[in-house]
Amino acid sequence: MANASSFTHLDETGKPQMVDVGEKNATVRTAEAESRIYLPPAVLQQFDGTELTTKKGAVFQTAVIAGIMAAKKTPDLIPLCHTLVLENCKVHIAVEGSEAVIRCTVKTTGKTGVEMEALTGASVAALTVYDMCKALSHDMEIVHTRLISKTGGKHDIG
């Protein structure tokens, strides 16, 4: 098992700490994350080719706004995340087969990455789709959330 000091969010005594990024150089950083939510037939029947509409309103439009708001609030939701000024956040939702595919792309210029903001944005957008459609069916399932890519740090992926 790794010792406590090998984890960046633990100090030498094993207590939680925020990572010190003070000595790092600011770079342009991006991240893209994806969440997928299974939509059963009762929900898909409400999809008109561009939007899913329920009695609560335009589902995808609302989920896009929720995803952007969530990305901006990530340090309030996830302990030890740095507060970042987001230069851009985009949430895109498309239906592929029986799934809504939600992509959240975030950009900042800073000393730490925006992976958690992208993952939070995609996740909350998926939760919003669920919330707005649950009156139609509880058979929806958030089946997949993952980081697609990140750039600007030590370890670019994607």
TrEMBL record:
InterPro entries according to UniProt: MoaC, MoaC_bact/euk, MoaC_sf, MoCo_biosynth_MoaA/MoaC, Mopterin_CF_biosynth-C_dom
Region (Disordered): 1-20
Catalytic activity line of the entry: (8S)-3',8-cyclo-7,8-dihydroguanosine 5'-triphosphate = cyclic pyranopterin phosphate + diphosphate
UniProt-listed Enzyme Commission number(s): 4.6.1.17
Every Molybdopterin cofactor biosynthesis C (MoaC) domain range: 18-153
Superkingdom: Bacteria
GO biological process: Mo-molybdopterin cofactor biosynthetic process
Residue stretches spanning the membrane: none
SUPFAM superfamilies with a match to the protein in the record: Molybdenum cofactor biosynthesis protein C, MoaC
Keywords from the UniProt entry: Lyase, Molybdenum cofactor biosynthesis
Keyword Hydrolase attributed: no
Molecular function, one GO term: cyclic pyranopterin monophosphate synthase activity
Gene3D superfamilies found in the cross-reference section: Molybdopterin cofactor biosynthesis C (MoaC) domain
Matches recorded under Pfam families: MoaC
CDD domains the UniProt entry points to: MoaC_PE (cd01420)
Pathway entry: Cofactor biosynthesis; molybdopterin biosynthesis
PANTHER family documented for this protein: MOLYBDENUM COFACTOR BIOSYNTHESIS PROTEIN 1, MOLYBDOPTERIN COFACTOR SYNTHESIS PROTEIN A
Function (record text): Catalyzes the conversion of (8S)-3',8-cyclo-7,8-dihydroguanosine 5'-triphosphate to cyclic pyranopterin monophosphate (cPMP).
Protein name according to UniProt: cyclic pyranopterin monophosphate synthase
Native species: Chitinophaga lutea
